[in-house]
Amino acid sequence: MAPQPTVLVLGGVGFIGRNFVAHLVENGLAAEIRVIDKVLPQTAYLNKRFQAAFEKVQFMQGDLSNTIPPEKFEKIFTRDDGSSFDYVINLASETKFSQLAEIYEERIYKLSINCAKEAVKRKAKVFVQVSTGDIYESSGTASKEDSKTKPWNLMAQYKLKVDKELQDMPGLNLVILRPAVVYGIGAMAGLSKFYALAYTVHAVRIEMLTIIFGFGLPRKKNAAPRLICGRVYQHLQKTMEFLWTKDLKLNTVHVQDVVRAIWHSANWYVSSDNAQPGAPAIFNLADENNTDQEAVNTHIRSIFGIETDFKGTVFSLLAQSDMKEATEETNDMHLGPWSNLLKAAQIKSSPLTPYLDQELLCNNALSLDGTKICVSTGFTYEHPKVTTQSLREIITDFQELGIWPRD
Questions:
Q1: Are 306 and 326 found together in one domain?
Q2: How much is the pLDDT for 372?
Q3: Residue 220 belongs to what domain range?
Q4: Rounded Cα–Cα distance for residues 213 and 224 (Å)
Q5: Is 407 within the bounds of a domain?
Q6: What does the alpha-carbon distance between residue 177 and residue 258 come to, in Å, rounded to a whole number?
Q7: Mind giving me the DSSP string for 371-398?
Q8: Model confidence band, residue 74 (pLDDT cutoffs 50, 70, 90)
Q9: Taking a C-beta distance cutoff of 8 angstroms, is the pair 43, 122 a contact?
Q10: I want to staple 217 with a disulfide (CB 3.0 to 4.6 A). Which of 3, 198, 231, 337 is the partner?
């Protein structure tokens, strides 16, 4: 039997990273695991499962941005015995939306390119880059790996910039994974804010008209913001309304399937099953449910006992013409009730927030064909669709961490 690989996990404290580390540890998959992150595990709201996993890996605090000293960068990639890691998994990235281009240039593009170059220098057997499904053109059909690209937000533009350059980097043994909306235990923010377009009730001026409306929550890669707003609307005893229509695609993939895909694709890449060794491999990650807004809302209604509705295309287009003001007023309305809920539950501090980023309210469907990885590598998804239970688990985990009010 071949020896187990040694693994360097960059950005391993985040949502996907903590789940990936736990997956490796609990299943005894790696001979050595080193985790790099600028955030200390002790300050990252890790639950007991994740805490136990991190006790069994080597953690090094480090900011992988372009400002890191060369000698520290060298140390990160060097094992204690002076050798290099077999697998390098890059989950490090700026995850906040609506940032300046300079931030994404530094914390997505330069970070990823520098790490990939070091992986080439160290002759890493595989470099797995976790990208995003946001890079594809929003259309009426599910995007495949070779579909037309048209990133709909600035973060995705830099993710695509990285993807393209990595594919042309000589000597890089590359796997790129492009997940849909990722959900599961540990989902708090960042990529999570792709998951909705919720509404409250405001008076907002649009062009020459005054229309009563509000929004509520963005649509990016995890369920937390939508769940938080669902709790707010339960508190307000109001209908939770959404922009656009019920059939707007928000395809999903469970975080456990993502972490399994990372490990599976890395092992496949270095195996004899890979018919094109040394060539870049790109795989979308999306379950078979073809999830849309209404599919998610079904679970929100079940969890919180509230009504949900949609404003439709015409109204949403009018709202979009004055999105900045609408977003500001909506945040004001959501943040207050959420703060009151936390105060009533005697929760002094919580990383969870219903805060909405303006750029996430556009009519951009996320529809991915995630079958190539199954056909090409034999991977199987264990979570074929979002369930009410899988969303309740997120809330229960938050409650056990003391950052979500107990009902």
A1: yes
A2: 98
A3: 190-249+291-365
A4: 22
A5: no
A6: 9
A7: -HHHHHH----S--S--HHHHHHHHHHH
A8: very high
A9: no
A10: 198
